[in-house]
Amino acid sequence: MNHKSLQELTNKYNWEIINNEISKTFVFNDFNSALDFFNLVAKEAEACNHHPDILNSFRKIKINLTTHDEKKITEKDLILASKIDALFNNFTSK
After folding, report:
1. CA dihedral (49, 52, 56, 61) positive or negative
2. What DSSP string runs through 7-52?
3. How far apart are CA 34 and CA 17, in angstroms?
4. Which has more confidence, 93 or 54?
5. What's the CA gap between 43 and 72, in Å, rounded?
6. Is the Cβ–Cβ distance between 51 and 77 less than 8 Å?
7. What is the edge-to-edge ordering of all strands in the sheet holding 21-27?
8. Which pLDDT tens digit goes with each residue over 24-70?
């Protein structure tokens, strides 16, 4: 599986490390677009069987990833973060 490294996620793709999580906020033009993206992320998370904390605030979606069982950032988080970035890029290129 091709995925971004933790350093690449934080430096190039603007994910932040906060405690034992990686976090990123995605901003949209309107509430409905934010909800559509929320649902795309939820489907991808379910397919990966790895579930992030997803917060919605009007036009913003904030995603926090950690592997709860291990209480740290793992390969699962990096893979899902990469997939979320790809979803966002595809979503905003429409």
Report:
1. negative
2. HHHHHTS--EEETTEEEEEEE-SSHHHHHHHHHHHHHHHHHHT---
3. 23
4. 54
5. 23
6. no
7. 16-18, 21-27, 60-65, 53-57
8. 999 999 999 999 999 999 999 999 999 999 999 999 999 999 999 99
Contact 34, 28 (CB under 8 A): yes
Q: Are 10 and 22 in contact (CB under 8 A)?
A: yes
Give the total residue count for the chain.
Answer: 94
Provide CB contacts within 8 A for 45, sequence distance 6+. Answer: 51, 52, 80
- The position carrying tokens 């599986």 is 1
Query: 39 is written with which tokens?
Result: 């649902």
